[in-house]
Hints:
This protein has a single domain (12-205), classed as Rossmann fold, CATH 3.40.50. The chain has helices at residues 12-15, 17-27, 30-34, 39-47, 78-86, 94-99, 123-133, 150-154, 165-174, and strands at 53-56, 72-75, 91-93, 109-115, 137-148, 178-185, 199-205. The N and C termini lie far apart (32 Å). The chain is an alpha/beta fold. The protein has a seven-stranded mixed β-sheet with strand order 3-2-1-4-5-7-6, sandwiched between helices. 34% of the residues lie in helices and 22% in strands.
Amino acid sequence: MPETRDPSPDGAATADPSYTERLVTLEQSGLKRLLPTQAPYRWNLRRLRLGRVLDVGCGVGRNLQNCGPDSVGVDHNATSVATARARGLTAYTADEFAADPELGRPGAFDSMLVAHVLEHLDAETCEQLLRGYLPSVRPGGKVVLITPQPAGYRSDPTHVRFVDFPVLRAHAEGAGLRVERSFSFPLPEPAGKVFKYNEYVLVGIVP
């Protein structure tokens, strides 16, 4: 298992404007610029039939742009939110989301996506994050948690905690979710030791 690094409890490293620049640069670099490398991940999200999604930690909107047209992103990085909006997406800072009674009303969303977020936070902050946004998802709705496997974890210095299937399950059950299924994507789990884009995916159901 990769080492746990010195934690940034509130995800401070990902709140810096330079983190947004890094995300955009990664999207436009190498094969990602020339090939449809995001196609499998778009397919994976769409096959889960998530309906109206609340994308928590949406960043610059990489996943949000593959969700339903009425989906909403929220992120603590104001620069990332501005970038997502410039791409025509609906995104808010955490403070803006909290101040909008319509966005925060119980059951406003069919599902919640938390992709490549939990590995940036300590366990307590993850629990607070999930419990804070879960009321916005309707009963019976889905919560999808996605984290990187070993090679992906090692590739980003802002990752502070390795979150694999057992840890994902613990977070989901701690938030009161019923775990529907978990799987490795796009390749079987052993590939995640060398392929940095392999992901752990857990799908939970809101009671």
